[in-house]
Write a structure and sequence with these properties.
Two copies of one chain form a homodimer.
Chain A: E1 6-12, H1 16-27, E2 31-37, H2 41-49, E3 55-57, H3 60-63, E4 69-72, H4 79-86, E5 95-98, H5 104-114, E6 121-122, E7 124-126, E8 147-150, H6 158-170, E9 174-177, H7 180-206, H8 211-216, H9 220-226, H10 233-242, H11 244-266, H12 270-291
Parallel strand pairs in A: 1-2, 1-4, 2-3, 4-5, 5-6, 8-9
Antiparallel strand pairs in A: 7-8
Chain lengths: 293, 293
């Protein structure tokens, strides 16, 4: 069992990610007390019943009282309001970190709320999740062997980075550091763009007159391909707007490439099609050798 | 154990689909002898060793000799050459069926080869597969609880349809019938288009300077989303060209919708984004209730 890292951890937003983090830290013996915070008391009662948190507050300013670490696990569109609520009472030596999928917007929000970027702020992003949401979908091993990207700012204190690293390592994750902008570009490519493509495909098909029949004949490949279109629409709406610039760039690059493929199919350009499919298969197979599929 | 349906079945192309069909029919006791045919004798020797086929020929005309059923399980681009080779020797009472993913091209090829569409031709398409290929990837349960679409022509004899149905039912599949053109449209939407999108995404990312890092940070959603980009490039090249018309139409419809989404992201059009994601999630969840995810 690991040493206790936090005496009192406050998790704001006890859903899939916040709940899984709480479970993992508790299982690792890394935290003495966990205080939850949210607006939905049914969910918070459930979280208490499940033993994910010890108790909860619905007022963020009360929730962070006496905590030595606060984790923001709310949708991106809610981050600023929460930071505004806790800013007046947050202790300087209390770690403030988050799990948001976009880091540029979080840093912008923090700068506006705090005036300058606080030394105790360590923006973070665990590369883990499922298409399910809510505390009942949370589980302690969600972060095991997953990457967590920290994007410290120029003001972040090394001690706070070390504590955040220790927190994620206690969950079994591998921690890396990256610049804010670079993080947002990489995630636009590997996560945000694929979600857009999947949502868009399912919607294109769902709006057809024969959509019922279409879905009837969809096979296993389609099920896997569209799994991410079952993700939480509100969360993904927030991600789209928060990572707006990088995402629009990726969508445009992808659309150009798709247009080229459509032209090649139209013109029966065998060489183009074969070469492109072969390159893609090689890249995907190489990636999957590493991901252990 | 089911009754014997075929005394001598000839499977031309003993790969994932042809091999799995042979295994399933043998396990069901539905066939007395299975003759394989192909060009790659290493694969065919392997198929004999694995007990998938009893013996093989490399010359299609010799392979079909004395068979009461012939299954074409070769890439779409090879169908015409095979039919040309067997046409002079194929008995009128021998069932001729195929497993190709596009039915319009198969019917066109058959009409050209045979002069008119033969009464013993039953075009078919099992909606099953994996991203793997080759006889070693084949397994007897591949078609269990899967749909098989038959697209009989105006000349197809009802007795031949009945035998093809019996063959697939012996493999545990559910058999339905559909018009040729309609089949190709439905499959363009649910299978061919998603493959294009996945190939295109992986290729777009693979051609970036930071592609190595990009793939390093890809998570589980990306793995599922891109699984179909590991499919056989040659087979998918053939499908693209064979289903050219329906696929180009689908690619254009999809591109238009994706452009609309990109514009909505660019303009931070919250309502559009939320409504679209919500519609897509609902359609995908409804589909998956049926597919049992």
């Amino acid at each position: 069992m690991a040493a206790v890292i936090f005496q009192r951890l406050c998790v704001i937003g006890v859903g899939l990610i916040g709940g899984s983090l709480a479970r993992a830290l508790r299982e690792a013996g890394a935290v003495a007390e966990i205080v939850g915070c949210g607006r939905n008391t049914t969910q918070l009662d459930k979280a208490c019943e499940l033993g994910v948190i010890d108790r909860y507050e619905t007022d963020p300013a009360r929730a962070v009282y006496g905590a030595d670490a606060v984790v923001l696990a709310v949708p991106l569109g809610t981050m600023k309001a929460i930071m505004t609520a806790i800013a007046p009472v947050l202790a300087d030596d209390c770690l403030l970190t988050d799990v948001g999928s976009v880091k540029g917007s979080l840093v912008r929000d923090a700068r506006e709320v705090f005036g300058q970027l606080p030394a105790n702020l360590v923006p973070g992003h665990p590369i883990a999740g499922t298409e399910n949401s809510g505390v009942e979908a949370s589980f302690a091993t969600l972060f095991r062997l997953r990457r967590v990207i920290l994007t410290p700012t120029e003001n972040t204190s090394p001690a706070m980075i070390a504590r955040t690293r220790a927190m994620w390592q206690a969950c079994g994750a591998e921690v890396v550091e990256m610049g804010v902008e670079h993080h947002d570009e990489v995630l636009a490519a590997t996560s945000h763009l694929p979600h857009m493509l999947a949502y868009s495909l399912v919607d294109t098909l769902a709006r057809r007159d024969d959509s019922q029949e279409i879905f009837d004949y969809a096979a296993g490949g389609f099920r896997d391909f569209t799994r991410i279109a079952s993700s939480d629409p509100d969360m993904w709406h927030d991600i789209c707007l928060a990572n707006h610039d990088a995402l629009v760039k990726m969508l445009e690059a992808y659309s150009d490439d798709l247009r080229e493929l459509a032209a090649a199919v139209k013109n029966a350009d065998s060489d183009f099609i074969k070469q492109m499919f072969t390159r893609a298969k090689q890249a995907r197979d190489a990636y999957c050798e590493k991901c252990g599929e």
